[in-house]
Amino acid sequence: MRVCDPRPFLKWAGGKGQLLGEFEARLPRAVREGRASAYVEPFAGGGAVYFHITSKYAFDECHIFDTNEDLILAYTVVRNDVDDLIEVLRGMETTYLNLDAKKREEFYYTVRREYNKERSSIQLNNYSKAWVQRAADLIFLNRTCFNGLFRVNSEGSFNVPAGRYRNPKILHEELLRSDSELLENTGIHHGDFSSCAPFVDEKTFVYFDPPYRPLNRSSSFTSYSKGGFGDDEQRRLAAFFRDLDARGAMLMLSNSDPKNQDPSDNFFDELYAGYCIERVPARRMINSNADRRGEINEVIITNYRPAITDR
Fold first, then answer.
1. Under 8 Å CB-to-CB from 180, ≥6 apart: which residues?
2. Residues 200 and 241 in one domain
3. Whole-structure pTM over 0.85, yes or no?
4. Which domain, by its residues, includes 120?
5. N or C: which end of the chain has fewer CB within 10 A?
6. Alpha-carbon dihedral sign for residues 22, 23, 29, 32
7. Over the stretch 137-193, which tens digit does the pLDDT of each residue have?
8. 169 and 220 co-located in one domain
9. What CATH number should be reported for the domain holding residue 98?
């Protein structure tokens, strides 16, 4: 019996926690009735949708994908070595919380420096115990950095400065154990969205959460990995969406709504013409100016007509 419900073990910019009700209300009937055999998520990110859906609905198998190597490493460690990860995090938390503010900052930058230095030594096709320390470092940095962002520069180095939290909770033991249990039934893959194709058939539900199209030039925040995700990639994704639709798969995709900024911008309406496109309210969370964190619309696109249910 799980002590707590599975949910993201990382704070993740662009996470979909606030929209879970909207997604669940639009799930295919086959998912609700237990007739969908597989769940696939080609952009895993922090995993808010994955943890919510797969903990509530039964699937024979699940698969998550991401191009972020360290994210895939962390998921794998939580699944394979949660006990060792918890012990390492316990030691880091104890050490950090017993330091004064200046020493905490020094500790943070030491961990960040080692984390970036060891980046090239981790091989995703060769699992080892060294992964445990790296996953622990990532969780530590995520819990103690400024705003809980994951951001890398063009060279792939984590570059978020230290945060100033009085008593950050670095180890969430019950949560890690619940997540580990859920991940036992999940294939964890490093690759872009097209890598999921071999795992998709007519009994598969696929949820796409690509890097959002910026609402304007100043709002772009796509540095979760070294590669960007511009309009050409959005078009490639739409073509892939149509390919999976032709297989009979059940598909859902979310993205920012360009009409928030320009009511005449029909980018997604044209890209996904013929599919069901709905607009739902959401709060903009990623903005350095708190006054501009207001309600906006996001789009939810499905290749079926959702029968909206109570959330």
1. 78, 79, 82
2. yes
3. yes
4. 74-174
5. N
6. negative
7. 999 999 999 988 788 887 778 999 999 999 999 999 999 999 999 999 999 999 999
8. no
9. 1.10.1020.10
